[in-house]
Amino acid sequence: MKALTFNRYGKSPGIGFSDVLRPTPKADELLVQVHAAGINPIDNMIPTGIFKAVLKFRLPATLGSDLAGVVVEVGSRVTRFKVGDAVFANIFDQGTGSIAEFAVVPESAAALKPGNLDFVQAASIPMVALTSWQALKERCKLQSGQKVFIPAGSGGIGTFAIQLAKHLGARVGTTTSTGNVELVRSLGADEVVDYKKQGFEAVLGGYDAVLGTVRGDAIEKAIGILKARGRIVSLVGPLDVAFARARGLNFILTFVFALMSRKIMRLASQRDVDYSFLFARPDGDQLAEIGQLLEAQRIRPVIDKVFAFEEARQALAYLAQGRSKGKVVVRMR
C-alpha cells in the first residue's frame, strides 16, 4: 500500500511516498481503510527529531495521527466495532501513522463517525478535539462562568477549543489577525485581540485558564493575565518534569526537562498559578462524546483546505506556513 513516510530525523528527513506492507491488526485492533487524514503541526515536528527521545518510531515511519475511514478487518478481541463501520480516530503516539491507504487503530482509540459529517470533516476533528477536551476539562477543570484565554483562535486548535469552551459555559478571549476577527467571533469568542495592533497582555486580565498554543514568549506573557491559582496548559512547551515522570523517562531527560521549564515554573510560582505541558492521548470514549456534540451541531468543523492524497507533502508544507483558518485535511478516496 501507499503511505507518506519519513526515513530519518533532521533537516532532510526524506519525506515522500513509499510502498509499505499493509498492516495486520492485533487482537484488540481494527484495520481501517483510510478515506481522509487530518494534518496537525506535530506531523511537521516529528521528522525534525525534536521529540525523538519521547516518541518512538521504527524508521521509515508513516506520518499522521488523525483519520476517518471504514473498518475492513477486526481483531479477535474487538467487540465494539464490525467490518463496514465508519469510524474516526486519533492514533498519536502509537508508533504508526494515518497518511496511508490503510491504518491499524486500537479499539480503545476509535469512535463511530458522526452521521452528519463526511469523512473529510470527521478526519479534521480527533487531535484538536482530544487536545481541547483534555486540556480544558481535565487539566483546567473549566467551569461555567470562568474565563479562558485561547490564543491563535483561527487555527486548528483554536477553532475547536473556542467552541468547546463556550459549550462548557466559559467566556473566551483569543488573538487573531485583522482578517479573522469575524471568524473567531462567529465561533463564540468574547474578547478578541488583533495581535497585529496590540499585545494581548496589555488588554486582557482576570483569566482563570490559558491554553498555550503559540511559541516564543507568549506563554510567559500569558501568566500575567491569570488570576491567582489559575492554570496554564501548554501544547508547545517547555516540557516539564511532571511530563517526563508520567512517561517514565530516564533521569537525564527528566533533568533536561527541569532545566527547560525552570524559568516558566519560577514565573508561575511567583504568580501562584499552575503550569503543565500536555500531549493529548488517544481516547475513543472521549471522541464518542465529542461526536455527540458534533451531531447535535453544538460544535462544527472548521476546514481551511483539502489536499488530494498525492499532495500530502504539499499539505504539510502549507500547514507549516502557519496561516490556515481551521484544519488542513488530506483526502485519500
Q: What's the layout of helices and strands?
A:
Blueprint: E1 2-6, E2 16-19, E3 29-39, H1 41-45, E4 61-62, E5 66-74, E6 86-90, E7 102-106, E8 110-112, H2 119-123, H3 126-139, E9 147-149, H4 156-167, E10 171-176, H5 181-186, E11 191-194, E12 207-212, H6 218-223, E13 226-234, H7 241-246, H8 251-260, H9 262-270, E14 274-277, H10 284-295, E15 303-308, H11 312-320, E16 327-331
Parallel strand pairs: 9-10, 9-12, 10-11, 12-13, 13-14, 15-16
Antiparallel strand pairs: 1-2, 1-4, 3-5, 3-7, 3-16, 5-6, 6-8
Helix pairs in contact: 3-4
Short overview:
By secondary structure, this protein is of the alpha/beta class. It has eleven helices and 16 strands.
Written account of the structure:
By secondary structure, the protein is of the alpha/beta class. The chain folds into 2 domains: 2-125 and 301-331, Alpha-Beta Complex (Quinone Oxidoreductase, Chain A, domain 1); 128-277, NAD(P)-binding Rossmann-like Domain (Rossmann fold), CATH 3.40.50.720. It has helices spanning 41-45, 119-123, 126-139, 156-167, 181-186, 218-223, 241-246, 251-260, 262-270, 284-295, 312-320; strands at residues 2-6, 16-19, 29-39, 61-62, 66-74, 86-90, 102-106, 110-112, 147-149, 171-176, 191-194, 207-212, 226-234, 274-277, 303-308, 327-331. Strands 3, 5, 6, 7, 8, 15 and 16 form a 7-stranded mixed sheet that branches. It has a 6-stranded parallel sheet with strand order 11-10-9-12-13-14, sandwiched between helices. Helix 6 links the parallel strand 12 and strand 13. The mean pLDDT is 96.
